[in-house]
Amino acid sequence: MSPHETSDPATLRAVAEQVAAEAAEHLRGLPAPRDASGAGAAGAVSTKSSPTDVVTASDASVERFVRDRLAQLRPGEPVYGEEGAGDAATARWVVDPIDGTVNYLYGLPWYAISIAAVDGGATVAGAVAEPAAGRLWSAGRGLGATCDGRPLAVAATTEIGQALIGTGFAYRAERRARQARMVATMLPEVRDVRRAGAAALDLCAVAAGWLDGYLEHGCNWWDWAAGALIAREAGAVLHIAVPPGMSDPADAGGTTGGLGDDVTLAAAPGIAHELAGLARRSGAAQV
């Protein structure tokens, strides 16, 4: 099968769902990276961009599993993953083996496996599996979004002051400080702010109406490739930075003017404009 062969979103969605569910089962069978005392096996945890940016042996194991299964089901199609890299410009599949690794490391249940099928950099299908909760979120372009087969729809919120907003923070201290200042400025203008620690699940929460909006700077393509489509297919308005290999910002679902070069914003239509404006006034472009 040619790496550039196109397939319909329904077929790619089914593959993403199958592999994500299988990968979740694979992860559940792996030993925990640390025990109840906080001790971990030698070599089970290391760091990447900063001391707080952790990667576990489980991340690598899950990504190998996903790559192997995709090679079996979709031979010849390039994979771009967080741990194994690859060529972003030619990728058919974008994989985050564990989104929310710090949560996983600490035994918190908010982590996920994200698998997206892309065409020219734009996501056409994707699935997000939650190993702890057993939930499976998915979407196909033009096909809507579901959680465990149930259709999703964003919240009907129309007042920014009543909006519950999700966010996240970068790994480097200096950027976290700028993000904290932005969120502190926004906080009095919204109902409240949540920080769950997994971008893919934050986007799914917008799709389900559990969050009215989500805003974060510094996410990588693999963090949002599947979740953003799920949110959009559920009715969310998106402002997303252009990923590698994508020439048209509109393919990502929105533009990022005044919000920063690497922003991810998803919101219910009734508050999307106000949330973007509030973020700009709160210094999003300087984050």
Automatic annotation (TrEMBL):
- Entry's EC annotation: 3.1.3.25
Transmembrane regions listed in the UniProt entry: none
Q: Which Pfam family, just one, is annotated for this protein?
A: Inositol_P
* Reaction catalysis annotation: a myo-inositol phosphate + H2O = myo-inositol + phosphate
InterPro entries linked: IMPase, Inositol_monoP_metal-BS, Inositol_monophosphatase-like, Inositol_monophosphatase_CS
Q: Which UniProt keywords apply?
A: Hydrolase, Magnesium, Metal-binding
Cofactors demanded by this protein? Mg(2+)
Magnesium in keyword set = yes
Chain spans, region Disordered: 25-56
Q: Where is the composition biased (Polar residues)?
A: 46-56
Report the family membership: Belongs to the inositol monophosphatase superfamily.
Q: What is this protein called?
A: Inositol-1-monophosphatase
Taxon lineage: Bacteria, Bacillati, Actinomycetota, Actinomycetes, Pseudonocardiales
